TrEMBL record:
Signal peptide: none annotated. InterPro entries: 2-HAD, HAD-like_sf, HAD-SF_hydro_IA, HAD_sf, PGP-like_dom2, S-2-haloacid_dehalogenase. The lineage of its organism: Bacteria, Pseudomonadati, Pseudomonadota, Gammaproteobacteria, Alteromonadales. This is (S)-2-haloacid dehalogenase. It comes from Paraglaciecola arctica BSs20135. It comes from the Bacteria.
């Protein structure tokens, strides 16, 4: 924890890596990339990078399609030949079947018991996050699911957070954005939201952005603060 902040009216969760464990995709990505499981992180960062390209250029593409394109780019850069069909097989089904991190369900249950409104805001499609939550057993914990697909502007563009806040009917300072990505924390903070960074393994804050209101190792630690 870095500093105290007013109790939020609504808690907004990022999904991929914050709630869902992307590490399980290492085997499918690695199998497609000649056993190079360590390229999974590069694939995900390439996908995020090009989601911003679509936002800046105004050429919206579905997050899953960007994921497939990103894998083909990584393969090409590594001198590995794969087909689009192989890329789709490696990504789509595994991405929709990610398990929740061990701390997620107990923490979400506790937040609901404490009376917090719990929602999600993701770069995944509406259909995608619905399937992800169903497969991970998270549907019951959320009051609302929000996808940037509705406005076709990817996080961390400020418009994504502003749209979500308007949809929720709350002021920026009344909402807490919870994420395991420094870029998501930076975007939400710039939009005026409270922020909580979950320090999942391998994740770091962006040093040039304002610090989050909360810096915790997992969601259980955040729950203890919000009690």
């Amino acid at each position: 924890m870095t500093q105290a902040a007013p109790k939020p009216k609504v808690i907004v969760f990022d999904v991929n890596e914050t709630l869902l464990d992307l590490d399980t995709m290492r085997s499918s990505i690695g199998k497609t990339l000649n056993g190079n499981e360590d390229l999974t992180a590069l694939w995900f960062s390439t996908m995020l990078h090009h989601s911003l390209v679509t936002t800046v250029t105004g050429d919206y593409q579905d997050f899953g399609k960007i994921g497939v394109a990103a894998l083909m780019m990584v393969a090409q850069n590594e001198g590995i030949k794969i087909t689009q069909e192989q890329a789709v097989t490696a990504i789509k089904t595994p991405l929709l079947s990610l398990p929740a991190h061990p701390d997620v369900k107990p923490a979400l249950s506790a937040l609901k018991t404490l009376g917090y409104k719990v929602v999600s805001l993701t770069n995944s499609s509406n259909a995608g996050v619905k399937t992800q939550f169903a497969n991970a057993g998270l549907t019951e914990y959320f009051d609302e699911r929000m996808s940037i697909e509705d406005i076709k502007v990817y996080k961390p563009d400020l418009r994504a957070y502003e749209w979500a806040l308007k949809k929720l009917g709350v002021k920026p300072e009344e909402a807490l954005m919870v994420a395991a990505h420094g870029w998501d924390i930076a975007g939400a903070k710039a939009a005026g939201m409270q922020t909580a960074f979950i320090a999942r393994p391998g994740k770091a804050l962006y040093p040039l952005a304002p610090k989050p209101d909360y810096l915790v190792k997992d969601l259980n630690e955040l729950v203890a603060i919000l009690k």
